[in-house]
TrEMBL record:
CDD domains: GT9_LPS_heptosyltransferase. Its EC number is 2.4.99.23. It is an enzyme of class 2 (transferase). The lineage of its organism: Bacteria, Pseudomonadati, Pseudomonadota, Betaproteobacteria, Burkholderiales. PANTHER family: LIPOPOLYSACCHARIDE HEPTOSYLTRANSFERASE 1, TETRAACYLDISACCHARIDE 4'-KINASE-RELATED. This is Lipopolysaccharide heptosyltransferase 1. It comes from the Bacteria. Pathway: Bacterial outer membrane biogenesis; LPS core biosynthesis. Belongs to the glycosyltransferase 9 family. It is a peripheral membrane protein.
Length: 334
């Protein structure tokens, strides 16, 4: 096998958690070229993966919102790039119309997608010449690895490998001699996923007392206002300026701890091997959570609001000195 195309178009957290599929394929088939089709908004994240050889992208999301002629021309141009190679396999691990159309337009006689009951949009089935097996009983992230392995005929081995290499920042996100930094990702794409602001204040205060410099990123004006509310009650905390996706990733990479709701940047923190606590209020931790012994943990049941005590217990789990020592000892033994 010489070349494989993975189709996973959006969104940030899903793309981050799908990256181990590329690493699995590289391990199973040394020398294979792995291409990836994504929306332009998330292409840079895929480009950070050392397991992906070529990233194909188009401004699909932007065109859907604005219907600009320039974006339409960019999409048309991307089709030629998509068809530049013939693929041995196309693996659509997204399963909606837009990913199916990409799979259909690319050149291959083997286009594999989900079974109808597992598709995000059932009409996407038109594009496929073969189907994955039934969705396995595991979280969504491991499920993608299983589906791809079944389609290509290899065994999934070991924990997920993300292989992210970020570009070097122009300037260090934080001073080298500053206190350890804890980032609180309080913002979410949906209101029902929010954790109460008083809870963020309580956790922020506790982290400040423990010697952390608490920082608060944001994406919209409403999120900035909420960040300022939290910061006004957490001594020494900082509301960060507006940052790009790359700048946020570089900031995360410089942090000692990340606490946040079920959002893409918190998934990124997990993929960057940071000590991470993910808080679930309205989504399923069993389906979308993160977990790595002593490093990443999900809290909440997806039906109720996790308590402050639960969050602090989780922070202790991922950041206690005994667990840090245990991880270092394990690494040395390996």
């Amino acid at each position: 096998m010489k070349r494989v195309l993975i189709v996973k178009v959006t969104s940030l957290g899903d793309i981050v958690q799908a990256l181990p599929v590329a690493a699995d394929i590289k391990r199973a088939f040394p020398g294979v070229e792995v291409d990836w089709a994504a929306d332009e908004a998330f292409a840079e994240v895929v480009q950070w993966s050392t397991s992906v050889d070529r990233v194909l992208c188009a401004p699909l999301r932007r065109f859907k919102k604005a219907r600009r002629w320039g974006d339409f021309k960019a999409i048309a141009a991307s089709i030629a790039e998509l068809r530049a190679y013939r693929y041995d396999f196309i693996i659509d691990i997204h399963g909606v119309y837009k990913s199916a159309i990409i799979a259909f337009l690319a050149r291959s006689s083997k286009r594999i997608g989900y079974q109808s009951q597992d598709l995000g949009e059932r009409g996407a089935a038109f594009a496929y010449t073969g189907r994955f097996g039934p969705r396995p009983l595991c979280d969504a992230w491991h499920g993608m690895r299983i589906s791809a392995s079944e389609a290509l005929g290899y065994e999934v081995e070991g924990p997920a490998v993300y292989n992210l290499r970020l570009p070097e920042p122009a300037t260090a996100p934080f001073a080298a001699d500053s206190a350890p930094v804890a980032a609180l990702f309080h913002a979410t794409s949906k209101d029902d996923k929010k954790w109460p602001l008083p809870h963020w204040v309580a956790v922020g205060r506790e982290l400040a007392q423990r010697g952390f410099h608490v920082v608060l990123p944001w994406g919209s004006e409403g999120e900035r206002a909420e960040a300022e509310q939290i910061a006004s009650q957490v001594p020494g905390s900082t509301v960060l300026p507006k940052l790009s996706v790359t700048e946020i990733a570089q900031m995360i990479d410089a942090c000692a701890l990340v606490v946040g709701t079920d959002t893409g940047f918190v998934h990124m923190a997990h993929a960057l091997l940071k000590r991470t606590v993910m808080i679930f209020v309205a989504t399923s931790p069993d389906h979308c959570g993160i977990d790595a012994p002593y490093r990443s943990i999900s809290i909440g049941d997806g039906r109720s609001v996790p308590s402050i005590a639960q969050a602090l217990e989780a922070i202790d789990y991922v950041h206690s000195e005994s667990h840090v020592s245990a991880m270092q000892h394990g690494s040395a033994a390996a």
